[in-house]
Design a protein that fits this description.
The protein is an alpha+beta fold. The protein contains eight helices and six strands. Strands 2-3-1-4-5-6 form a six-stranded mixed sheet, with helices on both faces. This is GGDEF domain-containing protein.
């Protein structure tokens, strides 16, 4: 009977909350004395609860809590690695002109665009407000620049006017990359601070740009469409 109910719930066009579903099914199996299957569903419920606690409620990207775990917790990724700090350009104007509901839709869509075409083990996290972080382990400097600038172009080319006539959205990014080499690797926290400084360089250069440091100079990827 429980198995039939479980299958019907999965086929429902409006499935209930998966966390509560697994908890309910675990309870049913427990009342039947099937502790193995009850345990399996409880483990699934715990996995869903943990994943939910690490996701941003608005954009479904990872949240600041998950990012802080990677910044300050045990970190085993080997260099080279890169971190990009991304900010929506003039986002306050979007909220002021079109309203916060449209602003929320813009944030969700930008998060989706940032998460497209990321390499394995990379992720996007909402840093706060209209800022996002791209965490890019295991890529060289040139690849990291291409990844971040491709994200910038996806956002700039997106048909925002379909959401609201006249709407245009762009992003600026600061990219901090640590090259492989001798010595103690730079901490991710320090890399994020570098990315923040480079983000301001991109903003000062006119926005809709990716700023990154190449040897001893700061170079800018410029919008050239």
């Amino acid at each position: 009977m429980v198995a039939e109910d479980e299958g019907a719930l999965r086929r429902s066009p409006h499935p209930p909350d998966l966390l509560r579903l697994h908890e309910a099914i675990a309870g049913l199996f427990a009342t039947q004395g099937d502790w193995r299957r009850a345990y399996q569903h409880l483990r699934s419920a715990l996995d869903i609860a943990r994943d939910g606690s690490l996701r941003d409620a608005l954009t479904s990207s990872y949240n600041r809590r998950y990012l802080d775990e990677r910044l300050y917790g045990p970190f085993t990724d080997a260099p080279p690695r890169a971190i990009a700090l991304i900010d929506l350009d003039r986002f306050k104007g979007v909220n002021d002109t079109y309203g916060h509901l449209v602003g929320d839709r813009v944030l969700r869509r930008v998060a989706d665009l940032l998460q497209e075409e990321l390499p394995p083990d990379a992720f996007c996290a909402r840093y706060g407000g209209e800022e996002f972080v791209l965490w890019l382990p295991g890529v060289d400097a040139g690849h990291a620049v291409r990844i971040v600038d491709a994200a910038r172009r996806r956002v700039a080319r997106h048909p925002w006017s379909e959401l609201q006539p006249g709407l245009r959205v762009t992003i600026s990014a600061g990219l901090a990359h640590e090259a492989a080499g001798p010595g103690t690797p730079t901490s991710p926290e320090r890399q994020l601070r570098r990315a923040d400084s480079l983000l301001y360089a991109a903003k000062r250069a006119g926005r809709n740009k990716v700023a990154y440091r190449d040897r001893q100079s700061t170079r800018l990827m410029t919008h050239s469409e």
